[in-house]
UniProtKB/TrEMBL annotation, chain A:
The lineage of its organism: Archaea, Methanobacteriati, Methanobacteriota, Stenosarchaea group, Halobacteria. It is a peripheral membrane protein. GO terms for biological process: carbohydrate transport. It comes from Halogranum rubrum. Its EC number is 7.5.2.13. Keywords: ATP-binding, Cell membrane, Membrane, Nucleotide-binding, Sugar transport, Translocase, Transport. InterPro entries: AAA+_ATPase, ABC_transporter-like_ATP-bd, ABC_transporter-like_CS, ABC_transpr_MalK-like, ABC_transpr_MalK/UgpC-like, Mo/tungstate-bd_C_term_dom, NA-bd_OB-fold, OB_MalK-like. It catalyses: D-xylose(out) + ATP + H2O = D-xylose(in) + ADP + phosphate + H(+); L-arabinose(out) + ATP + H2O = L-arabinose(in) + ADP + phosphate + H(+). It is found in: Cell membrane. The complex is composed of two ATP-binding proteins (XacJ and XacK), two transmembrane proteins (XacH and XacI) and a solute-binding protein (XacG). GO terms for molecular function: ABC-type transporter activity; ATP binding; ATP hydrolysis activity. This is ABC-type D-xylose/L-arabinose transporter. One of its GO terms (cellular component) is ATP-binding cassette (ABC) transporter complex, substrate-binding subunit-containing. Its main location: membrane.
Automatic annotation (TrEMBL), chain B:
Coiled coil: none annotated. It is a multi-pass membrane protein. GO terms for biological process: transmembrane transport. One of its GO terms (cellular component) is plasma membrane. Belongs to the binding-protein-dependent transport system permease family. The chain crosses the membrane at residues 12-32, 82-102, 114-137, 157-181, 264-281. InterPro entries: MetI-like (IPR000515), MetI-like_sf (IPR035906). This is Glucose/mannose transport system permease protein. It is found in: Cell membrane; Membrane. It holds the Pfam family BPD_transp_1. The keyword Lyase does not apply.
C-alpha cells in the first residue's frame, strides 16, 4: 500500500493544454474524487495515472517510485471504465481471470479461488458462467468492478463507472462502492462530472476546471469554504446564487439591490472595486414581510416542488428576467406571482473578487457548530 | 370499424399479392439461366438439339453421362484449385487481419503512410502486374528451390499461384478488417492493456476471437475470387497437370463439336465449392456485413 503523488502533472495535445500543473497527494487508502465539467482534464489525468497517456511534464509517484515511463502493466493499477469494457466473447469468470492470467504467475486453482472470492463479495457468484450480453447493466457494472478488485492492485482508478446506470441503481451502487472501498482500504481515484457523487463518496474532492486544479478538500470544506467562484458554483445543487456588485464604501450596489456590509465584510473586500456576492439557495430566507437591512422585496416566479422541499425562483420585480433560487420547506405553500421578502443573512454570504474569482470571504460556520444537539 | 378493417385487410391482401407476383417474376428471371443450364446438363446431345434449352428433357433423352464425363475431366482441376485456393484464402485473411490490427489498434509512427500503401494495393488491376509477376516467378524458381522435396517441386505452379493470390488479397482484406477494428471498443483494448496483456496477446485473446464475422466475409470473398480466377492461372501455370479448375473447364469446350451438356455439367461442378462456402459461413457473413461484433 502506498500513497499516490501527482507532482505538477501537465498534459499537452499539440497546442492544447489539457491538464496544467496539477499537484495532489492521495493518501494510502484514501478515496479521492476528481470532479469537473466535461473537458476539464479529469479523465486525461486519470489516464496519465493509468499509463494510457504519456505525461508531458511533471511526475506521478506511487510511494517512492516514479510511474512515468512505466508501461500500464507494470504499474499495479486497475481501472474501471465508463463503458465497463468487458470482453464480450468471454464469460464473467474468464473476464475476471484474464488480468491475473496475463499479469501474474498464479496457478489455475489460486486464480479460480480469487475470482470466486471477488465474485461473492460483489454478489455475482451465480453469474460466473454467463457472457456479458446476458447481463443487465447493473450486473455488467459489478463484473467490471470485480475485474478490478480481483487484481488486488495498489490503486483503483474509476472513470465515471456509475454514469450508465439508472438513478436508483446508481444511488445503490454508490453506497456499495464506498463499502467495498472501505473494506479493501485501497487508494482510489474516482472521476465524475456529477457533484452529488463527489460530495457523497469522496474522502476528499479535487475540483478541476480548464485543466487547472481549483481546490482540494473534504466535501464539507469545498461546499462551505470554496476557494473561488467556480468551485462555489459547481458544488451544490441547486447552484449558489451569484450577484455582480460594485463596492461603494460600506455598501455593495448591484443592478437590483444594495447590500450594506458589516465592518468585518468591509475589510474583506478592501482593495476590490467589483465583487460577486454568492449565497446558497438554502441560506436565502423567504419571509412574508420585513424591514431589516438585508431583506429585499421579490416576486415568486416559478416554484419547483421536490416533495421534501420547494425550489422557489424569485425575481426582484415581475419584469426582470434574472431570477435567483431559494429553497424552502416542502410543507410551506408558495404560489407563483406571490410577493415575498428574501433575506440574505450576512453570516451566510460569500464574496468573490469579480476579476479573479478568488474567494474574499466565505460563509461563517458558527451556525454549523451551534446546530449540534445541546444537552 | 369492422367494415373499415375489412377493406383494410383486402387492400393488404391486394398489396401482398402484387408483391409476391413481382417476387415470383424476379425469381424466375434470375433462376432461368441456372434452370436452363441444369436441364441442358441432363439432356443427351440429340435431346438438346430437339428441345428448347429451358424445357425439361424428354423421357428418352435423360442422361447423367455428361456429369460423369465432366467430373472425369475436371476432377484433377478441382483438386488443384483446392490445393492453392484454400491456403491462399486463409493466409490473405489472416495476414489482412494482423495488418489491420497493427494499423488500427496500435500506435506507431508512419502508420498513415503504410496504410495508404495498402489502400493503393486494393486498386492495382490484375492485368497491370502480369509482366512483373512472370518476371518475378522466373527469377524465384520455385521448382528448383524445392527440388529436394519432389512432391512440392512438382506442384511449383500451384505454389506460385497460391502465394500470388495470398499477397494480392492482403490489401482488400486489410481494408475490410480495418473497418471492423475501428468499431472495436477502445476502452476494452485499454482494459486489456491494463490487465497486463501485450499487443500480441491482445490480438490473440481479444481481437482474433471477436473477428469471426469478418473472417467469414473475407473467406467467402477471397475464396470466390481466387477459385474463379483464370488470368493468373493462365500466366503462371505451364504444366497441364497443375491446371486449376478454371483452365480445365475451358478445355471442355471442344474444337469440333460443342458438347453443351458436358460444358453445363462442368460449370456446375466448378461452381459447387463456392456455393458450399457460402452455405457454411452464411450466418457469420450476414453478421459481418451488418457490422455486428
Amino acid at each position: 500500500m502506498a500513497r499516490l503523488t501527482l507532482d505538477s502533472v501537465t498534459k499537452r495535445f499539440d497546442d492544447v493544454v489539457a491538464v496544467d500543473g496539477v499537484s495532489v497527494d492521495i493518501e494510502d487508502g484514501e478515496f479521492l474524487v476528481l470532479v469537473g465539467p466535461s473537458g476539464c482534464g479529469k479523465s486525461t489525468t486519470l489516464r496519465m495515472i493509468a499509463g494510457l497517456e504519456s505525461i508531458s511534464e511533471g511526475d506521478i509517484r506511487l510511494g517512492q517510485t516514479s510511474l512515468s515511463g512505466k508501461r500500464p502493466k507494470e504499474r499495479d493499477i486497475a481501472m474501471v471504465f465508463q463503458s465497463y469494457a468487458l470482453y464480450p466473447h468471454m464469460t464473467v469468470r474468464e473476464n475476471m481471470s484474464f488480468g491475473l492470467e496475463e499479469s501474474t504467475d498464479l496457478d489455475d486453482d489460486t486464480i479460480r479461488q480469487k475470482v470466486e472470492d471477488a465474485a461473492s463479495m460483489l454478489d455475482i457468484d451465480d453469474l460466473l458462467g454467463r457472457k456479458p450480453d446476458e447481463l443487465s447493466g447493473g450486473q455488467q457494472q459489478r463484473v467490471a468492478l470485480g475485474r478490478a478488485i480481483v487484481r488486488d492492485p495498489e490503486v483503483f482508478l474509476m472513470d465515471e463507472p456509475l454514469s450508465n446506470l439508472d438513478a436508483k441503481l446508481r444511488a445503490q451502487m454508490r453506497t456499495e462502492l464506498q463499502r467495498i472501498q472501505e473494506n479493501l482500504d485501497t487508494t482510489t481515484v474516482y472521476v465524475t462530472h456529477d457533484q452529488t457523487e463527489a460530495m457523497t463518496m469522496g474522502d476528499r474532492i479535487a475540483i478541476l476546471d480548464g485543466g487547472h486544479l481549483q481546490q482540494v478538500g473534504t466535501p464539507l470544506e469545498v461546499y462551505h469554504k470554496p476557494a473561488n467562484r467556480f468551485v462555489a458554483g459547481f458544488i451544490g445543487e441547486p447552484s449558489m446564487n451569484f450577484f455582480e456588485m460594485e463596492v461603494q464604501g460600506d455598501r455593495l450596489v448591484g443592478d437590483d439591490f444594495a447590500y450594506p456590509l458589516s465592518e468585518e465584510s468591509r475589510a474583506a473586500v478592501e482593495g476590490s472595486s467589483h465583487v460577486t456576492l454568492g449565497i446558497r439557495p438554502e441560506d436565502v430566507e423567504v419571509v412574508e414581510e420585513g424591514d431589516g437591512r438585508h431583506e429585499f422585496e421579490t416576486v415568486v416566479d416559478v416554484v419547483e416542488p421536490m416533495g421534501n422541499e420547494n425550489n422557489v425562483y424569485l425575481a426582484f420585480s415581475p419584469e426582470r428576467e434574472h431570477s435567483f433560487v431559494a429553497t424552502v420547506g416542502g410543507m410551506r405553500s408558495v404560489e407563483s406571482g406571490q410577493p415575498v421578502v428574501a433575506r440574505f443573512p450576512e453570516s451566510a454570504i460569500h464574496l468573490f473578487d469579480a476579476e479573479t474569482g478568488a474567494a474574499l470571504k466565505n460563509r461563517s460556520l458558527d451556525e454549523l457548530e451551534s446546530s449540534e444537539p445541546r444537552l | 370499424m369492422s367494415s373499415n378493417s375489412g377493406s383494410w385487410s383486402e387492400s393488404v391482401n391486394l398489396r401482398r399479392v402484387s408483391v409476391y407476383g413481382v417476387l415470383v417474376v424476379m425469381v424466375a428471371f434470375y433462376l432461368a439461366p441456372l434452370e436452363t443450364g441444369l436441364m441442358t446438363a441432363f439432356k443427351t446431345q440429340n435431346a438438346f438439339f430437339s428441345t428448347t434449352p429451358f424445357a425439361p428433357p424428354p423421357a428418352d433423352g435423360v442422361t447423367v453421362q455428361p456429369w460423369a464425363a465432366a467430373l472425369d475431366r475436371l476432377g484433377p482441376g478441382v483438386v488443384n484449385s483446392l490445393l492453392f485456393a484454400v491456403p491462399a484464402t486463409m493466409l490473405s485473411a489472416l495476414f489482412g487481419s494482423m495488418a489491420a490490427y497493427g494499423m488500427t489498434n496500435l500506435n506507431w509512427k508512419y502508420q498513415v503512410g503504410v496504410l495508404s500503401l495498402f489502400v493503393a494495393g486494393v486498386f492495382i488491376p490484375y492485368q497491370s502486374v502480369l509482366v512483373p509477376l512472370t518476371r518475378f516467378w522466373s527469377m524465384v524458381d520455385v521448382a528448383s528451390l524445392l527440388a529436394f522435396i519432389p512432391p512440392l517441386a512438382d506442384r511449383a505452379g500451384l505454389i506460385e499461384l497460391g502465394v500470388t493470390h495470398a499477397a494480392y488479397g492482403i490489401p482488400i482484406c486489410t481494408v475490410l478488417f480495418r473497418g471492423y477494428y475501428l468499431s472495436l471498443d477502445d476502452e476494452m483494448l485499454e482494459a486489456a492493456r491494463l490487465d497486463g496483456a501485450s499487443p500480441a496477446r491482445i490480438y490473440r485473446k481479444i481481437v482474433l476471437p471477436l473477428s469471426k464475422p469478418m473472417f467469414a466475409v473475407t473467406l467467402i470473398y477471397q475464396f470466390t475470387n481466387i477459385w474463379n480466377d483464370l488470368l493468373f492461372a493462365l500466366v503462371l501455370v505451364s504444366d497441364p497437370s497443375n491446371a486449376p479448375v478454371t483452365i480445365a473447364l475451358n478445355t471442355l469446350k471442344g474444337s469440333m463439336v460443342q458438347q453443351y451438356n458436358v460444358q453445363m455439367a462442368g460449370a456446375f461442378i466448378a461452381a459447387l465449392p463456392t456455393l458450399v462456402i457460402y452455405v457454411l459461413f452464411g450466418e457469420q457473413f450476414a453478421k459481418g456485413v451488418a457490422g455486428e461484433t
